[in-house]
Amino acid sequence: MATLLITGAAGRIGTALRPRLTAAGHHLVLLDTRRPDPPVGDRERFVEGDVNDRAALSAALAGVDTVVHLAGIPTEDEWDTLVAANVTGTKNLFEAAASAGVGRVVQASSIHAVGRVPEDDAAPGSVPGDRLPRPDLYYGFTKAAMELLGGLFADRYDMSVVSARIGAFGERPSSRRALLMWSSPDDLARLVQATVGLREPGHHVVWAVSRNTGSPADLSAGEAIGYHPVDDASAVLGADERAALPDEDVRFLGGGMADLPLGRRSN
Ligand SMILES: NC(=O)c1ccc[n+]([C@@H]2O[C@H](COP(=O)([O-])OP(=O)(O)OC[C@H]3O[C@@H](n4cnc5c(N)ncnc54)[C@H](O)[C@@H]3O)[C@@H](O)[C@H]2O)c1
């Protein structure tokens, strides 16, 4: 049992992780600029604040063992907006964690850190979790920069840092792309549990996707730190549901988003 700080806890992934992590016996501190829904329950405390607000971070980090860093802009946007939230926010989070003596961080990177890898170079099981970044968007660039910050702080402060390349998150797979790159809520909770168990300092860039049949993701970097995903998108959906899924551009690992205009808010 540990005390975890979840930044961006009011978002989609944070909301899905909360019941799974409290059910595993953990205490949670929820940090977000907006109030979580559902409201805080047993073993949870909420700190309203921004990751760029040092006072809020220091209040949130009291008594914390491990940080689950999800706060940020989850899609393409203007450069300055993305860099302030995703890069500067992450730098401030790591600085605050280091000065509070918190030794473990798992942070949300993205498939878009490698989104411009051509599909022709992405045979099943062939893309390592720590493949050299090849971003498809300014968003993906900020995720690659977050990974570099993870390495810097792991080296300088002997922290255990996991940069988790999340694919297509959802309760259920919702596109053909997600059949290959789905990140199920239960598997993301398993990755948090693996991070809580890390005892050695170091930085690990891993695929935070499920065990999807035919996926290009090579899961071995995650398995080396105890992340053993269980779910398979193709097994979750029936044949009719799979056939009815919307098609997506598959020329690049980042799917349809890999061709969006740079620097323009995408939704
Ligand atoms: N959803 C996906 O499929 C997916 C895929 C890959 C990576 N990710 C990454 O996972 C993380 C969470 O994604 P999500 O889908 O839950 O996004 P979301 O937008 O639903 O949640 C993000 C949360 O962060 C909060 N936030 C934003 N800026 C903040 C700041 N400066 N300080 C404090 N809180 C702030 C928002 O209020 C929001 O509640 C993001 O970093 C995203 O880039 C998500």
Automatic annotation (TrEMBL):
<keyword id="KW-0560">Oxidoreductase</keyword>
<keyword id="KW-0520">NAD</keyword>
<dbReference type="Pfam" id="PF01370">
    <property type="entry name" value="Epimerase"/>
</dbReference>
<dbReference type="InterPro" id="IPR002347">
    <property type="entry name" value="SDR_fam"/>
</dbReference>
<protein>
    <recommendedName>
        <fullName>NAD-dependent epimerase/dehydratase domain-containing protein</fullName>
    </recommendedName>
</protein>
<dbReference type="InterPro" id="IPR036291">
    <property type="entry name" value="NAD(P)-bd_dom_sf"/>
</dbReference>
<comment type="similarity">
    <text>Belongs to the NAD(P)-dependent epimerase/dehydratase family.</text>
</comment>
<feature type="domain" description="NAD-dependent epimerase/dehydratase">
    <location>
        <begin position="5"/>
        <end position="167"/>
    </location>
</feature>
<dbReference type="InterPro" id="IPR001509">
    <property type="entry name" value="Epimerase_deHydtase"/>
</dbReference>
<dbReference type="GO" id="GO:0016491">
    <property type="term" value="F:oxidoreductase activity"/>
</dbReference>
